[in-house]
Design brief:
Blueprint lengths: L4 H8 L10 E6 L3 E7 L19 H16 L7 E9 L8 E10 L2 E8 L2 E10 L1
Antiparallel strand pairs: 1-2, 2-4, 3-6, 4-5, 5-6
């Protein structure tokens, strides 16, 4: 089952600029999700981060994972992010890249998020919700 950007906005209620997830490719409701974020050169944050060397801010990579957790749990879920743990940034994400976002539920309200760039981990993080 795939979910497009318009359906993602309906599920999460997020609006631009915090609507980052472009598509869901696979979903096992409540357990795991694989989605895509297409990183466009037109993204407004590239103007200042960094001039001459555009890099997607890490906080926005994490926000994409948070949005994926929202989609994973559905429109009726009201979990609130309470903590970000073990955030690791390993690759710079540049305009033209495509991030594969992988979410897996580890515990009742703990999710592991990985942003993959060409089969390499660009960012990994644990997201705790209450």
């Amino acid at each position: 089952m795939t979910i497009n950007a318009a359906e993602i906005k309906q599920l999460t209620g997020n609006q631009s600029p915090l609507s980052l997830l472009d598509q869901v490719l696979e979903i096992d409701p409540g357990k795991s999700l694989v989605g895509l974020k297409n990183v466009s050169a037109n993204e407004s944050y590239f103007a200042g981060h960094f001039p001459g060397n555009p890099v997607m801010p890490g906080v926005l990579i994490i926000q994409t994972g948070i949005e994926a957790v929202q989609v994973l749990n559905g429109a009726k879920w009201h979990g609130k992010l309470s903590e970000i743990k073990k955030a690791r940034f390993r690759k710079m994400v540049k305009p033209g890249d495509q991030l594969e976002i992988k979410i897996s539920k580890k515990d009742s309200e703990i999710y592991e998020a990985k942003a993959m760039l060409n089969d390499d981990v660009a960012c990994s993080v644990e997201l705790l919700f209450s």
